[in-house]
Amino acid sequence: MDADLARLSEDIGTRLRERSLTLATAESCTGGWVAQVVTHTAGSSAWFDRGFVTYSNEAKIAMLGVSPETLAAHGAVSLETAAEMAVGALKNSNALISLAITGVAGPTGGSPDKPVGTVCFGWCRKGEEPVTDRRQYVGDRESVRRQSVVHALQHLILLLGP
User: Fold this and answer.
1) N or C end: fewer C-beta atoms under 10 angstroms in the chain?
2) Range of the domain at 92
């Protein structure tokens, strides 16, 4: 793991531990990369509960409770789906905070309204409404996925505060 991702892992771990919070992740286009980063830090079992890799719509429905109506109306790559993924990760875990990522990493799969590099994010604290964000990244598949992991973790740090 590169030094930047390792630092993010350590920072996330420190902040979660200091706040007595546990994290769950729900990932689609990143395929578990966020979970890999956060578990890079020794002792992460104290603050990382579990990760869901829900690549298919069926997995999003079955494992996270994403509504088929949401998927039909907005698609898998949408703020609405990311929010439901983040909420579902909390409902189906012992975590107190979650993050979710769903997007089009490419090189295929894009559309005019959701081109390759479109990624939607959701973060949620237990008992609160989810926060969402949409980004448009440039680069190859690996670059889009890495940028998504970094953004998800950096935004989680902002939500956790100093």
Assistant:
1) C
2) 3-160
